[in-house]
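An instance follows:
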Amino acid sequence: MSFFKKLFSSDKKEPILNEQEKQNLDKGLEKSSSSFFSKLTKAVAGKSKVDEDVLDNLEEVLVSSDVGVETTLKIIKRIEARVAEDKYLGTEELNKILREEIAGLLSETNRGEATEFEIPVGLGSANKKPYVIMVVGVNGVGKTTTIGKLANQFKKAGLNVVLGAGDTFRAAAIDQLQIWADRVGVPIVRQQMGSDPASVAFDTLQSAVAQNADVVIIDTAGRLHNKVGLMNELTKIKRVMEKVISDSPHDVMLVLDGSTGQNAFEQAKQFTAATEVTCLAVTKLDGTAKGGVVIGISDQFQIPVKYIGVGEGIDDLQVFNKYEFVDSFFK
């Protein structure tokens, strides 16, 4: 059993990637890993012991790798405590220590998550049917694509899926979701552009109940307008959904573009202030060297990362596996 599997052995439901998925994850995080280790090598150059200078340099490395200031300071503090215990800690051990501390942070937030696509994200009780996921996020983060890929995975797992085109402010958003619905082969409920998003959500849930669906995924408008307007809109959608299924939505999933780095933190702030976000999907991690954003956002907002996007293919949306992620990040 590897170090990471031992570290998380208490998580009985921790998903394990197959060989192809692991290769895709390694490839998707290759730019992030390469950039991080290039900076780390420079940070410890000429040093044999983890001293104050090394820790200062390490702090710069983590911040510049989009881990975020607060999470970086937390990691540095933990490493300082370990250095205080072992006065002779060498820089050659820094890689191992970083792995352990970052894995530990992710473990604190990402516990009890869904194990595979067979189980709807965050599902706590098998008798919840249909399971309703409301998806939020700004335009351009890959929200519609994520919904389509999720629908594909759920359908492959034998679940009946219904999509709801609740982003009625852009005709392109409705059309794009229709394309995904056709591609995956699942029904979609849509109305004309400019229709009330809450009305679409209501119709979608009624249709899903009538079809005995297992999972419902509702898209919402990707506008970062003022907090009050966003909060009112999302609250109205949730209130209308509850009229059909009393405890819906069962999950509110925020989709963030990992390639935007610190902008993703700001979006997370906006949406968590506007509604109760229960899980995250971080997309486009393969495009840039900003994979560290997953670590920072998971830690700072204490919201579990459920899915990560590591490529453009329809199967390149993965259930987030914390120890495999850290293993790939530190390749």
